[in-house]
């Protein structure tokens, strides 16, 4: 018997609900949807709609659940550690981007492919649609129109990061319901088996972040920082391993915090249970002050194949915006420890922030050079003004339209074309410098 099925809203006005309303559904056929990405560029850095997958796992005990991942289902070509290229098609640019001389694309399934995929199933009782970056909302808008055309009587519930940070804007896209609150998952692990044999697994050992960086929305999205237990983390890995995953990406913002009591014991448990059967990755960046000799050796021996380091900037003002998480000597020591443990210079990819308001371009050059001198490989991370963060408010004073048009928050074009902090030519020179093979290693 179906219980608490949300009705279709016919007046075009989205209704705000909380997650408890979604979780109260019983006996329903529920379709989870991850929309395609509309942007200038997109890469699969072990990207999965984790929140949606946790929710689907929670609901499947009392409902029938299925998944349409418009991004992952468009993967093609050979995979590197489980990652693959995502099919793309050039599309018309939104008007706000007309002066930007770059191609704009839909990354993911086409309308024809989505229609064909959904033709094999009956109309669901409810569609749960997730959202990620605020400036990807055009893909959300596009899929809502398509889903309403295919299933005119099925209610659509929109949640995710964009819906949380820009709830009023999201309410105008045509979804029936908006979930803007965020809560810790009620499920023990994400429903990765909905991919069949997933190309990789995703792991969360904690929710939130103990830091409050001026550019980051972690404290906005998660009101508190909580570490999960090692047993819960292992259960998450084991489930995904059981359905075929052999690469695992840790989504944590602070994986190495309190490493003696959590990270080290977790690594021992992973090595004990899986040996060298799985590969581990840290795309979000590690706090380098935590990487002493022992930590570097444990990372290497435990099978962490991809590591990302957070240097961000050697400029004291910029470092302060990053909660002073790292100093020059700490970064130099961390890279030295990693190289001694067995990693290569190429393995030590290092995030360097670019395009913050008022940031001196010479400080970016200095940071790139410093990273190379220490033995790291620079990787530029372009700034995006994220709603409700301190730096967003600073940027919005200069560009008020940021408050009403999330497309202007796009990190691919913000610093060079929107805020004009760095000329496109100068930006390219910085990218070339970062990619240069010139050996500056000591």
Number of strands: 19
Strand proportion: 15-25%
Largest sheet: 6 strands, parallel
Q: Trace the largest sheet across and list its strands.
A: 1-11-10-9-2-4
Cα distance, first to last residue? 69 Å
- Radius of gyration, in Å, reads 22 Å
Overall helicity: 25-40%
Mean pLDDT across all amino acids: 92
- Which residue ranges are poorly predicted, with pLDDT under 50 across at least 5 consecutive positions? none
Structural class: alpha/beta
What is the overall number of helices?
16
Outline type: globular
How does this structure look, described?
With 442 residues, the protein is α/β, with parallel strands linked by helices. It has 16 helices and 19 strands. The protein has helices at 19-23, 50-59, 111-118, 137-150, 161-165, 167-170, 218-221, 230-242, 263-274, 293-301, 316-321, 328-341, 361-374, 390-398, 414-418, 424-435; strands at residues 15-17, 29-34, 37-39, 64-69, 75-80, 83-86, 88-90, 105-107, 126-129, 156-158, 177-179, 201-203, 206-207, 226-227, 247-250, 279-287, 304-312, 348-354, 377-382. The strands form five sheets. Strands 1-11-10-9-2-4 form a six-stranded parallel beta sheet, with helices on both faces. β5 (75-80) and β6 form a beta hairpin. The model has no long low-confidence stretch (mean pLDDT 92).
């Amino acid at each position: 018997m179906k219980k608490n099925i949300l009705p279709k809203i016919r007046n075009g006005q989205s209704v705000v609900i909380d997650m408890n309303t979604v979780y109260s559904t019983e006996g329903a056929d529920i379709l989870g949807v991850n929309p395609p990405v509309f942007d200038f560029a997109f890469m699969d850095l072990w990207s999965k709609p984790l929140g949606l997958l946790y929710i689907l796992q929670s609901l499947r005990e009392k409902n029938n659940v299925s998944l349409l991942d418009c991004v992952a289902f468009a993967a093609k070509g050979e995979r590197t550690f489980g990652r693959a290229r995502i099919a793309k098609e050039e599309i018309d640019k939104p008007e706000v981007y007309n002066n930007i001389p770059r191609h704009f694309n839909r990354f993911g399934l086409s309308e024809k492919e989505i229609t064909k995929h959904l033709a094999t199933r009956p109309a669901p009782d409810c569609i749960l649609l997730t959202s990620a970056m605020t400036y990807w909302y055009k893909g959300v808008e596009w899929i809502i129109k398509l889903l309403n055309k295919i299933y005119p009587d099925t209610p659509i519930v929109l949640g995710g990061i964009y819906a949380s940070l820009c709830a009023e804007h999201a309410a105008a896209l045509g979804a029936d319901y908006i979930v803007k609150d965020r809560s810790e998952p009620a499920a023990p692990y994400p429903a990765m088996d909905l991919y069949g044999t997933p190309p990789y697994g995703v792991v969360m050992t904690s929710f939130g972040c103990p830091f409050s960086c001026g550019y980051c929305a972690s404290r906005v999205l998660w009101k508190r920082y909580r570490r999960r237990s090692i047993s819960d983390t292992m259960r998450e890995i084991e489930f995904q391993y059981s359905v075929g995953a052999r690469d695992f990406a840790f989504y944590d913002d602070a994986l190495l915090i309190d490493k003696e009591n959590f990270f080290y014991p977790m690594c021992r448990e992973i090595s004990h249970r899986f040996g060298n059967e799985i590969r581990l990755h840290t795309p979000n960046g590690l706090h380098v002050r935590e990487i002493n000799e022992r930590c570097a050796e444990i990372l290497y021996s435990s099978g962490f194949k991809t590591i990302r380091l957070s240097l961000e900037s050697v400029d004291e003002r910029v470092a302060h915006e990053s909660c002073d998480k790292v100093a020059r000597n700490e970064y130099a020591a961390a890279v030295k420890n990693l190289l001694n443990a067995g990693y290569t210079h190429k393995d030590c990819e290092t995030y360097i922030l670019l395009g913050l308001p008022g940031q001196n371009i010479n400080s970016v050059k200095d940071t790139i050079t410093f990273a190379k001198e220490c033995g790291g490989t620079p990787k530029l991370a372009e700034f995006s003004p994220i709603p409700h963060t301190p730096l967003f408010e600073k940027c919005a004073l200069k560009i008020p339209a940021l408050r009403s048009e999330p497309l202007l928050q796009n990190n691919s074009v913000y610093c060079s074309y929107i805020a004009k902090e760095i000329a496109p030519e100068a930006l390219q020179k910085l990218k070339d410098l970062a990619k240069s093979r010139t050996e500056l290693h000591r």
